Amino acid sequence: MFANYLIGLREGLEAALVVVILVAYLVKMQRKDLLPGIWLGVSLAAGLSLGFGALLTYGTHGLTFEAQEAIGGSLSIIAVGLVTWMVFWMARTAKDMRGQLHGQVDRHLAAGGKGLVVVAFLAVGREGLETALFIWSAVQATGQTTQPILGASLGLASAVVLGWMFYRGMLRINLSAFFTWTGGMLIIVAAGVLSYGIHDLQEAGILPGLNALLFDVSAAVPPSSWYGTLLKGTVNFSPATTWLEGVAWLLYTIPTMTLFIRQSVRRTPAPALVQSPVPQGVK
Q: Taking the CA of residue 195 as centre, how many other CA atoms within 13 Å lie in the half-sphere pointing to its CB?
């Protein structure tokens, strides 16, 4: 549940920050007449994300077990790739996110402002599709439905509240530190999803070694125990891990975390988000 909460919070906060920056800038430019376009883009993106989630959930019904495992494993690996790209992309762009969005708004204002619907749709839709895919992969990995969805929903709700607090000037946050810490945790979560994706492909017969176990600690960490469930829900830990799963986990985690730490150390920390993006006197 924690891993899904983290995904919902981080992806939701990225989308919320984009919306806050766009709305605040339009208010500052005294172009409130364009705000409905922003909300239209956000609504379309939310609808697309929900539809994508429904397609992932119900689209595999009626397929054979091997086909379901093959699709599940492939999508899990794709989800890992997307989340990894997102972690590094946000680490590079968090500092200049506002400036980049302001530049896009200025260009679209010069063209009449209609393109702002597309800006909001693409920004929020990207985060929504990534969230839907990663949450679906987590549901497949844990074998549960309620807790992953509840965790993601709580994370998204927290992101909405934080976004509102940013807009009203009630909260300050160091975005660089936030995305650095959550990025490191997401790399560990993604490694677990990758391992499970490999296991799915092994069960589908696409990859070998399903019965070649690297370790089996099921007696010490029963999957049904509270700590087994906790490990499964947070980092997708499997008490019985094959050699291929273990090697994939190491080959992903070690270089990815090393590169991420190096990038985080080299990068100059971003200043805290301004206390109030809303111009004085505007309610």
A: 26
